[in-house]
Structure prediction request, 417 residues.
Amino acid sequence: MDILSNIPIYTLLFATLYFEIFLLVTYFEEAKQFTLTPTSPRTPDDYPSVTIMVPAWNEGRTILGTVDSLLALDYPKDKLSIFIIDDGSTDDTLEVAKTFEQNPQVRIFSKSNGGKHTAVNLGIDNSTSELIGCLDADSFVDKKALQEIIPFFDSHEVMAVTPSVQIWNPNNILQRVQATEYMVGEFTRKIFSRLNALYVTPGPFSIYRSEVFKKIGKFAKAYNTEDMEMALRMQANHMKIENAHNALVFTVSPKTIPTLYKQRVRWVSGFLKNAFFNYRHLFFNRKYGNLGVLTMPFAFLSIFTVFFLSALYVKNLFGLIYGKYIEYTALGFHLDFKFSREGFDWFILNLEFRRLIIYILFFCTVFFILMGSRMVVRKFRISRDMIYFLALYGLIAPFWLIRSLYNLVTAKEANWR
Prediction:
């Protein structure tokens, strides 16, 4: 009976380990693609025209820096247009936006509140550029970001390119946890791009060919995750999405647990609802390649993996603390590192098969963190942010995952803010 009860656990662990090893193998096979950006000589006339839309609702505090970062892009000024679209803000967003109205690169639109997707679609309707992108009004681009993205469009197969989104100026523990999470996310996103299996084109500075919207339509509300739905729609229509890992974009992240919780519930709920209500035909469908066979199923499976590993982590953590408490109260404080005369006593490690798999998963995660750090800061660097991530992420993530599953089952809408 004990064996039967462990079958689901071993199945979950084996599947997760298989997926992580698969990602590692893909990385080593495609290692050159993680250091190179496609390049081709071009003159100013060779650059495609680009429109970047900045949809904004009550972003008066950040929109000035967002637009300034776009104006500072290293890109021919006559080929770059910026649309600021106020979506019925009730603060000073529109007034701040109007400080740019004399700039020939900038156009300002104002509309009644209808949601981000309606603001972006208004920009699409008014754009005549070859490429169209979006930048959230709480994000900022590196001046070389667009230059890093454009060469990918030299391949006519590429219909969209995603950047490397990172945390802007993390200054508390929660933001530092997110900073490491985003670095890991960029590493895995690059691997997914090599597998043609990206399922989200992030709001901060994903760039599309304008023909995408003519062929498959504009953005939909999509449970408040329009960037995820658009990527899934593109994949369902066999449109290729690439990732420019050197194109750095920085976004302001939640500073408190309640705001982070709301954000992640919206993201995970949006993924689950888009996947199951609109794109469940992608699951295990070989017609959609690695996206259908690997990425989508494992993205769903990862929710349950996090539940299990987090529960095991909490159990072991409190077990360790309680054990040390009992030991201290009974014997007094002392240090016991269990070294034998011959050297380290390996019996200190619990090498039971299930835990051995967990140890391997842990070291795979550490490797992902280090590689993500290398991609973002251009070197291997162990920082306290990584320690915060390893120590805390497993404690907080289950809360928004549980709520997201509840939202899926009850069809409850996730709050935007």
Observations:
- Residues 1-33+155-333+342-417 form one domain.
- The chain has twelve helices and ten strands.
- The radius of gyration is 23 Å.
